[in-house]
Amino acid sequence: MTATAPTSTHALLDKHAGVLDEIREALRTRSWYSRYPESPSPRVYGETAAADGAAAFEAHRNTRYAAELVSATDGRWVGGEVSPYGPTLGVEYPGLDVDGALRAARGALPAWRDAGPQVRAAVCVEIVDRLHQRSFEIGNAVMHTSGQPFVMAFQAGGPQAQDRALEAIAAGLVEQERVPESVVWERPAKGEPIRMQKDYRIVGRGIGLVIGCNTFPTWNAYPAIFADLVTGNAVVVKPHPHAILPLAITVEVARTVLSEAGFDPALVQLAAENDGQGLAKVLAERSEIAIIDYTGGPTFGAWLEQAGAARGALVYTEKAGLNTIVVDSTDDLKGALGNLAFSLSLYSGQMCTAPQNIYVADSGVDTNEGHLSFDEFADRLATAVQRLTGDDAKAVEILGATVNDKVRGNADSLESIATEAEGRVVLESRRVTHPAYDQAVVRAPGLVAVDVSREDVYTEECFGPVGFLIRTSSTEQSLAQLADTVHEHGAMTASVYSTDEAVLEAAREAAAEGGVALSENLTGQIFVNQTAAFSDLHGTGANPAANAAYADAAFVANRFRVITSRRHV
Amino acid sequence: MTATAPTSTHALLDKHAGVLDEIREALRTRSWYSRYPESPSPRVYGETAAADGAAAFEAHRNTRYAAELVSATDGRWVGGEVSPYGPTLGVEYPGLDVDGALRAARGALPAWRDAGPQVRAAVCVEIVDRLHQRSFEIGNAVMHTSGQPFVMAFQAGGPQAQDRALEAIAAGLVEQERVPESVVWERPAKGEPIRMQKDYRIVGRGIGLVIGCNTFPTWNAYPAIFADLVTGNAVVVKPHPHAILPLAITVEVARTVLSEAGFDPALVQLAAENDGQGLAKVLAERSEIAIIDYTGGPTFGAWLEQAGAARGALVYTEKAGLNTIVVDSTDDLKGALGNLAFSLSLYSGQMCTAPQNIYVADSGVDTNEGHLSFDEFADRLATAVQRLTGDDAKAVEILGATVNDKVRGNADSLESIATEAEGRVVLESRRVTHPAYDQAVVRAPGLVAVDVSREDVYTEECFGPVGFLIRTSSTEQSLAQLADTVHEHGAMTASVYSTDEAVLEAAREAAAEGGVALSENLTGQIFVNQTAAFSDLHGTGANPAANAAYADAAFVANRFRVITSRRHV
Questions:
Q1: How many angstroms separate the CA atoms of A310 and A290, rounded?
Q2: Which residues of B touch A532 (CB under 8 A)?
Q3: Distance of alpha carbon A17 from alpha carbon A122, whole angstroms
Q4: CA-CA to B410 of 20 to 30 Å: which in A229, B172, B228, B293?
Q5: Which residues of chain A lie closer than 8 angstroms to B566, CB-CB?
Q6: Do A552 and B553 touch (CB under 8 A)?
Q7: How far does the CA of residue A522 sit from the closest CA of chain B (Å)?
Q8: Nearest CA of chain B to the CA of A560: how many Å?
């Protein structure tokens, strides 16, 4: 067997070969790796970075987007984004000519395919590096479309999303590199062995459709966008109609880098739309779309899964779930309560990873501050939330703004839930006044205590600042509920607090049974809501909340195919 | 970062650690590798092996299958296999109690999961080794269910299927091993770094359903069976009702090895059925079935794909296609014709990889024996087929027996196709008399010449001993037809004959465009129908004939999921 070395060359491959080595290794070892500092500090990014980024964001407002975002437009201008903080963005984007755009994307594929995995990966890294340079602009855009507080919008929308992009690039790259480009195969035979040269050619599936969400427009879209690109596909990026700008900037940067690198910018195009236009469905039904990635509600997600299967398209979805916490005991009550309060409060619980269902046994919780009854524990958690979010000016930097009326409705529903479920409102969802944006609707988390028997109440996702404290007969029942409800309804995250190794081991079993990742005894600066690129998988693909994970082999391996040609030599 | 070594131990892991190393390396390099000699010669297998195997096969006949094949039976006995060579097999198999069987399979999963990838792989290798010991018995069973000639039934049903099983084991094993069992993750922070231990646990999806086919009961089922098992799943094996015995023997061996190795045999169970019982559909609709693998007709395959997607099951299908050959020119006419004649004749074209559509330009073919017109080339190919299959006694060892009435109908349809399509019957499908089995219906390949315009005739699969010689305006058009018809209708194989490097390069482009593997200028003992485990992928997953390939990363990576648990250390 002889394998030939990759033959592709490109200036960007020379530039980024070192990065490709780093990210291959980081993925292999699942060790800590970050290319992009997550602190928006001027010491890191320079004294003018924040102001420059804010100005760049402001420059988009009340204009038609200046750079080219599509390769074929229908001539209309679309977009009606309104910031959850109040202001109308007033940005207009070119409408997509679907036929022309898909034709252009198909035309761009052969050269992208023939560039090979390493060149594609290097071009993708360059795109991410250039996105990084616009992190403050993107941070403002994410803040004013998702309602995230600024620091979070900067971090999750900028560096953390960029690291997840690199992770997807690494995953796609190494998966392609597992197949040699060419081998000489030699089969023993009577007399001379039979020798054949076999060339293995990586071929993308075609055009990917990435359907973004309102709350994490970049973070949830980048893994799919870069997984598609690195494996030789083109991408149509369809943002949520309320969160177009962050992905428009992304598409602009990608197209610019592609052009500069000698590729057709039609490989990445924006499919912006007005509210209610239904463009995702139109695109998802096109035979040219070979891969669909979706983050959003379960109803449309389920439709996509079936419609995709009906015509052989791959569909990766992240939908909804019941993120679950089991509290058994702790030797650091203050740390546990502080950590839980922050997880509940961050972005008002509007994260797909925010906890919703907190199981506590009727017998209460043993702690380093003594035994707490169920109700005492509930009240202590309420106090921790109040302490964290009691000061309006400070609270808004954690809570952000509510993104839509559904979330606001959920925040207002605690009293009626408690009445309906014969439970107790442990903490009302407090209305917070934003010192800078008086139109923003800001809500602190509320808590309702209910009995474990009331699955009718707590086994539906109640998105936003609402947590359920669920009284069980024992920690054993709490863990059984974790396994059962996650298996049936899905979850992106789970965590457990216990000082008992046997309980922790049982929790690991329950998490494996339910198919959800488990965090244990988080009391410091790591939160159950957060996952680290290259190390923590986001989602598992093993429960109904998501059929894939960022970014394992299964997320990338089927986005390309291998075409062999063989001949005697 | 520290990664811990795998901690699992098992006697079979000690026994097969060397084999696991060999197959990991063979898959990585895609070099020649075979553990099981494919020649049924007594010099390889011993003087009595053939007779012993035949006797073991005969011992099954007209009995209830002696060994236990299910973990829960409904008390009925099913099975009505009749050999394509004539004899009734008369074997009866226990009917499956679906509820009980799936419950038993689920109960067997935790221990299988906790055994870890290496132990599972070693147990799987032991199963394959033990299947190998029964290759002659299995060869007879494959012959008398599929209609394959004996040597082919031995090779494809025995050693070659076993090598494909090893390939799937290797692919599944290395994909699981890419994820470390445990790492310590260390994030720089002000003061002390944040350190977490992260454990990654491999969890199978649950229960796989493998739906076998009539023509290659073992070869087409083994990749899925062993991919499921090695990645921690249980398997229900649902054979074609006409080809149960080869998979019953397989299930018996698997259950025996599992029991001996300390695992619950419920991990592998047989779902035998009578003709028309519809058990595949019943099983495919069960929520416990997480993975479906299917080889068979496109209608049921498409239903499975949609039904699976509707409830989140993975579905891998191999359906039907138009295997395609383009003849441009050759410097070894005799070798090319001999190779083509054999590919058309082997098992009467009843291989999913057998050629059907042979494109030749109207201007004819340049050869080392001078220029041949389209019709001259067609007649030369007919002569080559006649020469190969002219002697009945020798012919049956290549042709085998026709497997069903559909194939026989296709063989009888040449005259009407030619009339309908204004074409020419180049060669009638000759009726061959089997010297040993007078009830066998044996047919040699027939050839019809038609114009390229008659896509209505040649773009449907005509399974069995029928080849179309399709007259095009040029080799360029031939290659365009290859790309277009394969892209639209699918194909498992393609090949090209040309002495012109530019034509070969264009053929590689057409194959990449259509999404099919290409063989070039086969004139010796390698045939387009045949693929080598560990080196050639079977199918590409890039055209409608199959949505997966044996056995790439995409075939295995999604059969298991990774569940993380993390904690501060």
A1: 12
A2: 185, 187
A3: 7
A4: B293
A5: 517-520, 526, 536
A6: no
A7: 7
A8: 8
Choose among B293, B139, B286, B314: nearest CA to B224: B293
Q: How far apart are CA A124 and CA A257, in angstroms?
A: 9
What residue type is assigned to position B314 of the chain?
L
Alpha-carbon span A432 to A273, nearest angstrom? 32
Query: Does residue A538 fall inside a structural domain?
Result: no
How does pLDDT run across A89-136, given as a tens digit for each residue? 999 999 999 999 999 999 999 999 999 999 999 999 999 999 999 999
Burial of B98 (0-12, 13-18, 19+ CB in 10 A): middle
Largest CA distance in chain A: 87
Strand partners, A317: A294
pLDDT for position A190: 87
The verdict on residue B526 lying in a domain is no
**At B173, phi and psi to the nearest 5?**
-65, -55
What are the chain A neighbours of B567 within 8 Å (beta carbons)? 504, 519-521
Task: Let me know whether B448 and B482 are in one domain.
Answer: yes
Burial B290-326 (b: 16+ CB within 10 A, else e): bbbbbbbebebbbebbbbbbebbbbbbbbbbbbbbbb
How many angstroms separate the CA atoms of B367 and B379, rounded? 15
By DSSP bridging, strand A234-238 and strand A207-211 are parallel
Helix (H, G, I), strand (E, B) or coil at B237: strand
What is the CATH classification number for the domain harbouring A511?
3.40.309.10
* ipTM (interface predicted TM): 0.96
Q: Given a cut of 80, is residue B62 above it in pLDDT?
A: yes
Residues B24 and A52 sit within 8 Å (Cβ to Cβ): no
Cβ contact, residue pair B518, A178, below 8 Å: no
Domain with residue A78: its CATH number is: 3.40.605.10
Does the distance separating the beta carbons of A568 and B522 come in below 8 Å?
yes
Alpha carbon of B64: minimum distance to chain A alpha carbons (Å):
38
Using an 8 Å CB-CB cutoff, list chain B residues near A306: 306, 309-310
Cβ of A30 and B183 within 8 Å? yes
Question: Cβ separation of A563 and B194 shorter than 8 Å?
Answer: no
**Which of B314, B531, B563, B569 would you mutate first to test chain A, the one with the most A CBs within 10 A?**
B563
* Spatial separation of the C-alpha atoms in residues A529 and B535, rounded to whole Å: 43
Mutate which: A563, A567, A569, vs B, most B CBs within 10 A: A563
Q: Does B6 have pLDDT greater than 70?
A: no
- Cβ partners under 8 Å of residue A162, min gap 6: A35, A36, A128, A131, A132, A135, A222
- The answer to whether residue A526 sits within a structural domain is no
DSSP state of B89: -
Q: Please check the confidence at residue A5 and state whether its pLDDT lies above 50.
A: no
Residues B276 and B343 in one domain: no
β A73-78/A93-96 pair status: antiparallel
Mutate to test the interface with B, among A32, A203, A568 (most CBs of B within 10 A): A32
Query: pLDDT, tens digit, for every residue of B494-550?
Result: 999 999 999 999 999 999 999 999 999 999 999 999 999 999 999 999 999 999 999
Q: How far apart are CA B97 and CA B87, in angstroms?
A: 29
Domain that holds residue A144: 11-319+548-568
Q: Token digits for A379?
A: 């009240």
Indicate the average pLDDT of chain B. Answer: 96
Is B112 found in the same domain as B142? yes
- Chain centroid to CA B124: 18
CB within 8 Å: A547 and B201: no
Yes or no, beta carbons of A532 and B185 under 8 Å apart: yes
Are A561 and B549 an interchain contact pair (Cβ–Cβ within 8 Å)? Answer: yes
A20 pLDDT above the threshold of 90: yes
The shortest CB-CB distance from A517 to any of B29, B306, B563 is to B563
In degrees and rounded to multiples of 5, residue A518 shows phi and psi of: -120, 130
Structure tokens at A465: 């600042």
Place of tokens 């990749």: B223
